[in-house]
Task: structure prediction
Amino acid sequence: MISTQKLVKQMLSLDMTTHHATKLKTRQALLAALDAAIEIDTKATITLNT
Result:
């Protein structure tokens, strides 16, 4: 089991620019799907039968 101090030391040694870029890269497909869904939503009309 990793100690808290060792974990903190590892986290402080992260290259945050690279970490951020990696997060964006892994989320790229999700973000593209959300962009597409938003585009579809802006063109759609919803009617409610009341």
Observations:
- Helices lie at 4-12, 16-43.
- The mean pLDDT is 90.
